[in-house]
Amino acid sequence: MTFDLLVKNATLPDGRTGQDIAVTGGRIAAIEPGIAAEAGRVIDAGGLLVAPPFVDCHFHMDATLSLGLPRLNQSGTLLEGIALWGELKPLLTHEEVIERALRYCDLAVSQGLLAVRSHVDVCDDRLLAVEALLEAKAKVKPYLDLQLVAFPQDGYFRAPTAARNLDRALDMGVDVVGGIPHFERTMADGAASVTALCEIAAKRGLMIDLHCDESDDPMSRHIETLAAETQRLGLGGRAVGSHLTSMHSMDNYYVSKLLPLMREAGVAAIANPLINITLQGRHDTYPRRRGLTRIPEMRALGIPVAFGQDCTMDPWYGLGGADMLDVAHMGVHAVPMTSREAIRWAFEAVTTVPAAILGLEGYGLAAGCNADFVLLQAADPIEAVRLRATRLAVVRRGRVIAETAPRHARLTLDGRPALVDPAAYRPPVGKN
Question: What InterPro entries has UniProt attached to this entry (predicted)?
């Protein structure tokens, strides 16, 4: 038998080594040792890690790469970022939004990031960004899965036309219902917005993903309402609370009741380490809060938790680069969670966990799955997070769509090696 692509001698995230991956017709035909067959292209993985592609389950593609337009965020706060975005929105053009989105997707593909859930602001009555990202979604479909969330950035009730615009966006083909209850004028309005948005998701049969309690205020408790409405309306497995940063300051007894409610309701959580640690705690002196939600506690209860990137070079965050290993690396430090098991989980938090939250079909490394995967310059998932490993090859539906040369350094030191490979510095086998 002749295959389209054959990857030899790969290590898989579950620890299996010496595995060959055979691909035909855009799908994985077999994964096993010693596949002897011809192929249109053969890649020797050299014992390095082959993983399913990275997934970013929380992003804002309508704002990406707009850093400095029309000015910079001087305070570095969430609220100034929202105000700055409000200044930029009237200046946006359809062509510019598409071009920035496509450029960002080029960068994403080069980093092995092949699926993105992006929130798109619906508070501009033109719905310009919605139209632009729907067009971008169609353009990138051959190489990247783009899922869009109708996001009333200025508040579902607070912005006069947000409710109507959200319905219009969903009618146009946007995939997911979004919201931002903590940005409403009152706590009561925030809770009412959660109920209204959940009812829209239930009526339309859609998923819901709310920016929820992105605040240092321990009394911002809209996640409780989201969990209750999810349970009431049968949205379990389709509902997500993103950010949830107020939880870092909540009373421990209250959280001991809240987390089981989330688990019972089937609500997933998305933390955004790069942004949460940057935007939160801005009113603190010392001690200063880290800003992330209670990730280990949610994991311990079996609540699905994923990491998102949120922003790249936009009004809220001047850094970023479509690198989900950078996100995982920050998560490990910011939580903190430095056990070997937790670091290995951080790799899952940017691959398999968000893929499940997005409901990606055909995702994974098994016969019959889509032939989408990444060859990394690392021996295993822990090393991939440690090194933020180079993506040597990115495969989409069995076709290599991006390649990067290995990272090596040449030394000219007497008595020392001529070549340094960072992937060779892993701990002894058995320490992972």
Answer: Amidohydro_3 (IPR013108), Metal-dep_hydrolase_composite (IPR011059), Metal_Hydrolase (IPR032466), Metallo-hydrolase_Enzymes (IPR052349)
pLDDT in tens, 369-380: 999 999 999 999
Strands 373-376 and 305-307: unpaired
Are 321 and 388 contained in the same domain? no
On whether residue 430 sits in a domain, the answer given is no
Please name the residue that has the structure tokens 């009113």: 283
Output the six-digit token pair for 126.
């033109």
Residue corresponding to tokens 């219009």: 168
Length of the chain in residues, anyone?
A: 432
For residue 228, give the amino acid letter. A
Q: What is the CATH number of the domain that holds 398?
A: 2.30.40.10
Q: Which of 214, 224, 229, 383 is catalytic?
A: 214
Any residues with CB less than 8 A from the CB of 263 and at least 6 apart, and which? 301, 302, 303
C-alpha 118/C-alpha 36 separation (Å) is 42
One-character DSSP codes across 230-269: HHHHT-TTSEEEEE-GGGGGS-HHHHHHHHHHHHHHTEEE
Number of domains the chain contains: 2
Nearest by Cα to 310 from 264, 245, 249, 255: 245
Annotation marks residue 214 as catalytic = yes
pLDDT, tens only, 111-158:
999 999 999 999 999 999 999 999 999 999 999 999 999 999 999 999
Residue 71 lies in a domain: yes
State pLDDT tens for residues 6-44. Answer: 999 999 999 999 999 999 999 999 999 999 999 999 999
Q: 371, 27 in Cβ contact below 8 A?
A: yes
Neighbours of 397 (CB within 10 A): 18
Amino acid at site 288? R
